[in-house]
Design a protein that fits this description.
With 372 residues, this protein is of the alpha+beta class. Among the domains are: 130 residues; 79 residues. Helices cover 74% and strands 8% of the residues. A 4-stranded antiparallel β-sheet has the order 2-3-1-4. Helix 9 packs antiparallel against helix 10. The two termini are 84 Å apart.
Amino acid sequence: MKLVTHKSSLVLFYLILQPNNLVMSQQNTNTDNYRDDEIDLRKLFQAIGNGFTNIGKAFVNMIIRIRRASITYKFFILVMGGLGVAVGVSFNQIAKPVYSTSLLLSSDYFNNRLFKNNIDKLNALCKEGNSIGLSKLLNIEVNIASNIKKVEFEPMVSEQDIVDTEVLKEKLEVLKIKDLEVEKILEQIELQNNNTYKVIIYVFDNNIIGDLEESIVGYFRNNTFVKNRIEATKKGQLSLIKKLRNDIEQLDSLKKLFNLNLRAEAGRKGETSSNSLLIGESSGLDPVRFYAQSIRLYEQLQEAQQQLELGDDFELIDGFTIFSKPESPGVIKTTALSILLFMALAYLIIIFIETNKYLNNMERERFKKLEE
């Protein structure tokens, strides 16, 4: 009985101490994990440092190998450099120089899509080398068309348009419109509102630039979409001018009748006549408004005639300028680029040769081991 009681007390004492032992074991486990985390971070930073060190060593070794290869294959490298000089100079002599110039066109009927479509047609014919088709499209001679390399364009946006676009963009952002929708709206505005464009042309002969100006302008003016609207606008202007002239002639007739009436009234001194005009506040004719209307009609006529003569719905703002210096690189740039290309080719060949030697050596060593 005493033995059983003693054993029971021992079991009870063990159970009382067991939670503390468990807590202590968990603390020890957490401490070990924390130490392991510290060790892992140190290893990580050490690995990063070793990685940078290896990169630096690899860069230095690469420079050393390039230096050794340059010394070993110096004659080959010099020969390749000489070939680069010869090819660069020859290419500059054989290749045609490229000249560029630009003009500014403005029309109320232009937009990006229309302009791009017309420019793409010209470039497609240039890439094909179809000088005959290009000459028909621009209404120029075939030898002139054969000297056109390509045509580009840039929409010219005024400072006010830029400011208005930014203001509109901010307003759209305030309305919490998605960025993609904002870009679509701005693209549509740009598509519809641009009416001034810079046309850049690249040619092989700068002597043909003078003949191309009229051809390029005529090419865009004779576009069906633009041509129809120019003709419609011109008819409207002619009709307006005709009407204004008739109105001015009628007013001139009234002015003559008015002056005659004044003279007659002054001669009669109070006598009445059925042919006289009533003047004054109660009359049907106000002399001030009468002459003011005549002036306004004349100003409108002058403005309509000016628009018709200038053709401001389609106009050339600035024409081509002939430059003597070509756009293409000169002999120095061409030769330098050629040398760089041939030197790069030389080192690629050297890398191929050295790699082949290394593989051959490895293959020999492998065969030796197999024989042994």
